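thought: fold this chain, then report.
action: predict
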Amino acid sequence: MDSIRTPRFLQQHRIDGTDLAREAAAGLLAPAARVSPKFFYDALGSRLFDAITELDEYYPTRSEAAVFGAHGAAIAGAALAASGPAPVLVDLGAGNCEKAARLFAALAPRRYVAVDISVDFLRQSLQCLQREHPTVEMVGIGLDFSARLELPAGVVDGPAVVFYPGSSIGNFAPDDALRLLRDARRAARGGALVIGVDLVKPVAVLEAAYDDRLGVTAAFNLNLLRHLNRLLGADFDVRLWRHLAFFDAAASRIEMHLEARTAQTVRWPGAERTFAAGERIHTENSYKWAPTDFATMLRDAGFADVRHWSDARGWFAVFVAAAAD
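observation:
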Protein backbone atom coordinates (compact mmCIF):
# COMPACT_ATOMS: atom_id res chain seq x y z
CA MET A 1 0.00 0.00 0.00
CA ASP A 2 1.34 3.44 -0.93
CA SER A 3 2.37 5.60 1.99
CA ILE A 4 0.44 8.78 2.76
CA ARG A 5 2.57 11.87 2.41
CA THR A 6 2.42 15.19 4.20
CA PRO A 7 3.10 18.52 2.46
CA ARG A 8 6.39 20.35 2.89
CA PHE A 9 6.44 24.12 3.33
CA LEU A 10 9.30 26.46 2.40
CA GLN A 11 9.09 30.20 3.04
CA GLN A 12 11.54 31.82 0.61
CA HIS A 13 10.23 35.38 0.83
CA ARG A 14 10.06 37.14 4.18
CA ILE A 15 7.21 39.63 4.49
CA ASP A 16 8.75 42.64 6.21
CA GLY A 17 6.30 45.31 7.33
CA THR A 18 8.99 47.97 7.35
CA ASP A 19 9.98 47.23 3.76
CA LEU A 20 6.33 47.21 2.67
CA ALA A 21 5.72 50.56 4.37
CA ARG A 22 8.80 52.02 2.70
CA GLU A 23 7.64 50.80 -0.72
CA ALA A 24 4.13 52.16 -0.23
CA ALA A 25 5.41 55.55 0.96
CA ALA A 26 7.79 55.83 -2.00
CA GLY A 27 4.89 55.27 -4.39
CA LEU A 28 2.71 57.87 -2.68
CA LEU A 29 5.54 60.43 -2.85
CA ALA A 30 6.32 59.83 -6.54
CA PRO A 31 5.51 62.73 -8.89
CA ALA A 32 2.57 60.68 -10.20
CA ALA A 33 1.38 58.83 -7.11
CA ARG A 34 1.08 55.07 -7.44
CA VAL A 35 0.63 52.03 -5.21
CA SER A 36 1.31 48.42 -6.17
CA PRO A 37 -1.82 46.25 -6.54
CA LYS A 38 -0.36 43.82 -4.01
CA PHE A 39 -1.55 46.29 -1.35
CA PHE A 40 -5.16 45.43 -2.26
CA TYR A 41 -4.91 42.12 -0.48
CA ASP A 42 -5.34 42.58 3.22
CA ALA A 43 -7.95 40.30 4.81
CA LEU A 44 -10.91 42.43 3.70
CA GLY A 45 -9.43 43.06 0.27
CA SER A 46 -9.06 39.32 -0.34
CA ARG A 47 -12.70 38.73 0.59
CA LEU A 48 -13.82 41.59 -1.63
CA PHE A 49 -11.90 40.14 -4.57
CA ASP A 50 -13.60 36.79 -4.02
CA ALA A 51 -16.92 38.67 -4.21
CA ILE A 52 -15.84 40.40 -7.43
CA THR A 53 -15.36 37.04 -9.13
CA GLU A 54 -19.06 36.28 -8.47
CA LEU A 55 -20.34 39.47 -10.13
CA ASP A 56 -22.31 39.37 -13.39
CA GLU A 57 -19.91 41.88 -14.95
CA TYR A 58 -16.72 40.02 -14.02
CA TYR A 59 -16.34 37.63 -16.96
CA PRO A 60 -12.71 36.33 -16.55
CA THR A 61 -13.39 33.61 -13.98
CA ARG A 62 -16.39 32.18 -15.83
CA SER A 63 -14.72 32.53 -19.23
CA GLU A 64 -11.58 30.70 -18.12
CA ALA A 65 -13.71 27.94 -16.57
CA ALA A 66 -15.56 27.61 -19.88
CA VAL A 67 -12.28 27.17 -21.76
CA PHE A 68 -11.13 24.39 -19.42
CA GLY A 69 -14.59 22.82 -19.45
CA ALA A 70 -14.66 22.61 -23.24
CA HIS A 71 -10.98 22.01 -23.97
CA GLY A 72 -9.41 20.70 -20.77
CA ALA A 73 -8.41 17.34 -22.25
CA ALA A 74 -6.74 18.98 -25.26
CA ILE A 75 -4.93 21.50 -23.02
CA ALA A 76 -3.62 18.74 -20.76
CA GLY A 77 -2.64 16.63 -23.76
CA ALA A 78 -0.63 19.46 -25.29
CA ALA A 79 1.16 20.07 -21.98
CA LEU A 80 1.99 16.38 -21.52
CA ALA A 81 3.23 16.15 -25.12
CA ALA A 82 5.94 18.63 -24.10
CA SER A 83 6.66 17.45 -20.56
CA GLY A 84 6.17 13.71 -20.81
CA PRO A 85 4.13 11.69 -18.28
CA ALA A 86 3.97 12.39 -14.54
CA PRO A 87 5.41 15.92 -14.61
CA VAL A 88 6.05 18.24 -11.71
CA LEU A 89 3.11 20.66 -11.59
CA VAL A 90 4.18 24.19 -10.57
CA ASP A 91 1.21 26.39 -9.67
CA LEU A 92 2.00 30.12 -9.64
CA GLY A 93 -0.20 32.23 -7.36
CA ALA A 94 -1.79 29.02 -6.13
CA GLY A 95 -4.10 30.55 -3.49
CA ASN A 96 -6.68 27.91 -2.58
CA CYS A 97 -5.18 25.47 -5.15
CA GLU A 98 -8.62 24.74 -6.63
CA LYS A 99 -7.76 25.44 -10.28
CA ALA A 100 -4.65 23.26 -10.25
CA ALA A 101 -6.51 20.49 -8.41
CA ARG A 102 -8.84 20.17 -11.40
CA LEU A 103 -5.83 19.22 -13.56
CA PHE A 104 -4.66 16.35 -11.36
CA ALA A 105 -6.75 13.70 -13.10
CA ALA A 106 -5.50 14.67 -16.56
CA LEU A 107 -1.86 15.44 -15.73
CA ALA A 108 -1.25 12.83 -12.99
CA PRO A 109 1.63 14.89 -11.55
CA ARG A 110 4.22 13.14 -9.41
CA ARG A 111 4.81 16.34 -7.44
CA TYR A 112 2.71 19.45 -6.93
CA VAL A 113 4.52 22.72 -6.15
CA ALA A 114 2.17 25.46 -4.97
CA VAL A 115 3.71 28.95 -5.06
CA ASP A 116 2.25 32.00 -3.33
CA ILE A 117 3.67 34.96 -1.43
CA SER A 118 3.12 33.24 1.93
CA VAL A 119 3.01 29.57 2.85
CA ASP A 120 0.36 30.48 5.43
CA PHE A 121 -2.02 31.14 2.51
CA LEU A 122 -1.31 27.63 1.26
CA ARG A 123 -1.17 25.53 4.37
CA GLN A 124 -4.82 24.53 4.85
CA SER A 125 -5.49 24.14 1.12
CA LEU A 126 -2.47 21.89 0.61
CA GLN A 127 -3.29 19.77 3.63
CA CYS A 128 -6.82 19.19 2.30
CA LEU A 129 -5.52 18.46 -1.20
CA GLN A 130 -2.97 16.01 0.19
CA ARG A 131 -5.77 13.98 1.78
CA GLU A 132 -7.49 13.75 -1.61
CA HIS A 133 -4.24 12.74 -3.36
CA PRO A 134 -2.25 10.94 -0.66
CA THR A 135 0.51 9.59 -2.90
CA VAL A 136 1.38 12.86 -4.69
CA GLU A 137 4.30 14.71 -3.18
CA MET A 138 3.27 18.31 -2.35
CA VAL A 139 5.38 21.35 -1.60
CA GLY A 140 4.20 24.82 -0.63
CA ILE A 141 6.61 27.66 -1.37
CA GLY A 142 6.26 31.20 -0.01
CA LEU A 143 7.75 33.34 -2.78
CA ASP A 144 7.09 36.76 -4.32
CA PHE A 145 7.68 35.77 -7.94
CA SER A 146 6.61 39.19 -9.24
CA ALA A 147 10.23 40.30 -8.88
CA ARG A 148 11.94 37.01 -9.78
CA LEU A 149 10.71 33.47 -10.25
CA GLU A 150 13.48 31.31 -8.87
CA LEU A 151 12.46 28.08 -7.15
CA PRO A 152 14.54 26.36 -4.47
CA ALA A 153 17.08 23.82 -5.71
CA GLY A 154 15.71 20.33 -6.09
CA VAL A 155 12.02 21.25 -6.04
CA VAL A 156 11.79 20.82 -9.81
CA ASP A 157 14.03 17.90 -10.77
CA GLY A 158 12.68 17.18 -14.22
CA PRO A 159 10.27 18.49 -16.85
CA ALA A 160 7.48 20.52 -15.28
CA VAL A 161 4.14 21.98 -16.27
CA VAL A 162 4.11 25.57 -15.02
CA PHE A 163 0.51 26.66 -14.49
CA TYR A 164 -0.39 30.36 -14.27
CA PRO A 165 -4.17 30.77 -14.56
CA GLY A 166 -6.53 33.66 -13.98
CA SER A 167 -5.02 36.25 -16.37
CA SER A 168 -2.68 37.59 -13.65
CA ILE A 169 -0.03 38.02 -16.34
CA GLY A 170 -2.06 41.09 -17.33
CA ASN A 171 -0.93 42.92 -14.19
CA PHE A 172 2.60 43.05 -15.61
CA ALA A 173 3.76 45.64 -18.12
CA PRO A 174 4.92 43.93 -21.33
CA ASP A 175 8.64 44.07 -20.50
CA ASP A 176 8.00 42.66 -17.01
CA ALA A 177 5.67 40.02 -18.43
CA LEU A 178 8.40 38.95 -20.84
CA ARG A 179 10.88 38.63 -17.97
CA LEU A 180 8.45 36.51 -15.95
CA LEU A 181 7.76 34.28 -18.95
CA ARG A 182 11.48 33.71 -19.42
CA ASP A 183 11.73 32.75 -15.74
CA ALA A 184 8.78 30.38 -16.22
CA ARG A 185 10.49 28.73 -19.19
CA ARG A 186 13.57 28.05 -17.08
CA ALA A 187 11.41 26.73 -14.23
CA ALA A 188 9.66 24.32 -16.60
CA ARG A 189 12.98 22.61 -17.40
CA GLY A 190 11.98 21.39 -20.84
CA GLY A 191 8.30 20.92 -19.99
CA ALA A 192 5.44 23.30 -20.73
CA LEU A 193 3.61 26.45 -19.67
CA VAL A 194 -0.18 26.60 -19.29
CA ILE A 195 -1.30 30.21 -18.86
CA GLY A 196 -4.58 32.13 -18.81
CA VAL A 197 -4.75 35.36 -20.82
CA ASP A 198 -7.51 37.97 -20.93
CA LEU A 199 -8.17 39.09 -24.50
CA VAL A 200 -9.10 42.43 -26.03
CA LYS A 201 -12.87 42.84 -26.27
CA PRO A 202 -15.49 45.62 -26.44
CA VAL A 203 -14.61 48.56 -24.20
CA ALA A 204 -18.02 48.54 -22.51
CA VAL A 205 -17.50 44.93 -21.40
CA LEU A 206 -13.99 45.65 -20.12
CA GLU A 207 -14.91 48.76 -18.18
CA ALA A 208 -18.00 47.20 -16.60
CA ALA A 209 -15.84 44.35 -15.28
CA TYR A 210 -13.75 46.86 -13.33
CA ASP A 211 -16.57 49.24 -12.34
CA ASP A 212 -19.56 47.07 -11.48
CA ARG A 213 -23.05 48.35 -10.70
CA LEU A 214 -22.99 47.11 -7.09
CA GLY A 215 -19.79 49.01 -6.36
CA VAL A 216 -17.85 45.97 -5.13
CA THR A 217 -14.80 46.82 -7.24
CA ALA A 218 -14.96 50.40 -5.97
CA ALA A 219 -14.96 49.10 -2.39
CA PHE A 220 -12.03 46.82 -3.25
CA ASN A 221 -10.03 49.77 -4.63
CA LEU A 222 -10.95 52.14 -1.80
CA ASN A 223 -10.09 49.55 0.83
CA LEU A 224 -6.47 49.98 -0.25
CA LEU A 225 -6.51 53.33 1.56
CA ARG A 226 -7.61 51.64 4.78
CA HIS A 227 -4.74 49.21 4.35
CA LEU A 228 -2.29 52.09 3.87
CA ASN A 229 -3.62 53.78 7.01
CA ARG A 230 -2.74 50.69 9.03
CA LEU A 231 0.57 50.01 7.28
CA LEU A 232 1.90 53.59 7.34
CA GLY A 233 -0.06 55.14 10.18
CA ALA A 234 -1.57 57.44 7.55
CA ASP A 235 -4.79 59.44 7.82
CA PHE A 236 -6.51 58.88 4.48
CA ASP A 237 -10.22 59.70 4.70
CA VAL A 238 -11.78 57.15 2.36
CA ARG A 239 -14.86 59.36 1.92
CA LEU A 240 -12.70 61.95 0.13
CA TRP A 241 -11.73 59.55 -2.69
CA ARG A 242 -13.53 57.84 -5.52
CA HIS A 243 -12.86 54.76 -7.65
CA LEU A 244 -11.98 55.29 -11.32
CA ALA A 245 -11.47 52.60 -13.99
CA PHE A 246 -11.10 53.00 -17.75
CA PHE A 247 -9.60 51.30 -20.80
CA ASP A 248 -6.52 52.90 -22.37
CA ALA A 249 -6.73 51.66 -25.95
CA ALA A 250 -3.25 52.87 -26.89
CA ALA A 251 -1.66 50.78 -24.12
CA SER A 252 -4.32 48.01 -24.38
CA ARG A 253 -4.91 48.02 -20.65
CA ILE A 254 -7.52 48.75 -18.03
CA GLU A 255 -6.25 51.29 -15.52
CA MET A 256 -7.60 51.64 -11.99
CA HIS A 257 -7.07 54.81 -9.99
CA LEU A 258 -8.23 56.47 -6.82
CA GLU A 259 -9.17 60.10 -7.47
CA ALA A 260 -9.25 62.84 -4.83
CA ARG A 261 -12.72 64.38 -4.55
CA THR A 262 -11.29 67.51 -2.87
CA ALA A 263 -7.90 69.06 -2.19
CA GLN A 264 -6.36 67.45 0.89
CA THR A 265 -3.13 66.68 2.70
CA VAL A 266 -2.47 63.11 3.82
CA ARG A 267 0.03 62.63 6.63
CA TRP A 268 1.93 59.68 8.06
CA PRO A 269 4.95 59.55 10.41
CA GLY A 270 7.85 61.32 8.76
CA ALA A 271 6.09 62.47 5.57
CA GLU A 272 3.00 63.94 3.97
CA ARG A 273 1.53 64.43 0.50
CA THR A 274 -0.84 67.13 -0.66
CA PHE A 275 -3.30 66.06 -3.35
CA ALA A 276 -5.19 68.52 -5.53
CA ALA A 277 -8.84 67.89 -6.31
CA GLY A 278 -8.92 65.43 -9.21
CA GLU A 279 -5.38 64.16 -8.58
CA ARG A 280 -5.06 60.38 -8.79
CA ILE A 281 -3.25 57.45 -7.23
CA HIS A 282 -2.63 54.75 -9.86
CA THR A 283 -3.44 51.38 -8.26
CA GLU A 284 -3.56 48.78 -11.04
CA ASN A 285 -3.02 48.00 -14.71
CA SER A 286 -4.59 45.01 -16.40
CA TYR A 287 -3.28 44.43 -19.90
CA LYS A 288 -5.51 42.81 -22.51
CA TRP A 289 -3.94 40.86 -25.32
CA ALA A 290 -4.64 39.88 -28.92
CA PRO A 291 -3.87 36.16 -29.31
CA THR A 292 -1.25 36.75 -32.01
CA ASP A 293 0.59 39.31 -29.88
CA PHE A 294 0.70 37.05 -26.81
CA ALA A 295 1.88 34.13 -28.93
CA THR A 296 4.70 36.33 -30.24
CA MET A 297 5.74 37.23 -26.68
CA LEU A 298 5.82 33.55 -25.72
CA ARG A 299 8.13 32.86 -28.63
CA ASP A 300 10.28 35.84 -27.66
CA ALA A 301 10.53 34.28 -24.19
CA GLY A 302 11.94 31.09 -25.73
CA PHE A 303 8.80 28.95 -25.92
CA ALA A 304 7.88 26.83 -28.93
CA ASP A 305 4.82 24.96 -30.26
CA VAL A 306 2.49 27.70 -29.01
CA ARG A 307 -1.22 26.82 -29.06
CA HIS A 308 -4.29 28.40 -27.52
CA TRP A 309 -7.95 27.70 -26.87
CA SER A 310 -10.68 30.31 -26.31
CA ASP A 311 -14.23 30.46 -25.01
CA ALA A 312 -17.10 30.76 -27.49
CA ARG A 313 -17.07 34.58 -27.36
CA GLY A 314 -13.31 34.88 -27.80
CA TRP A 315 -12.98 36.80 -24.52
CA PHE A 316 -10.39 34.62 -22.78
CA ALA A 317 -7.67 32.22 -23.89
CA VAL A 318 -5.59 29.47 -22.35
CA PHE A 319 -2.18 29.07 -23.98
CA VAL A 320 0.06 26.02 -23.91
CA ALA A 321 3.69 26.44 -24.97
CA ALA A 322 6.61 24.04 -24.89
CA ALA A 323 9.59 25.15 -22.81
CA ALA A 324 12.36 24.38 -25.25
CA ASP A 325 15.69 23.48 -23.64
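thought: worth noting. The mean pLDDT is 95.
final: C-alpha coordinates above.
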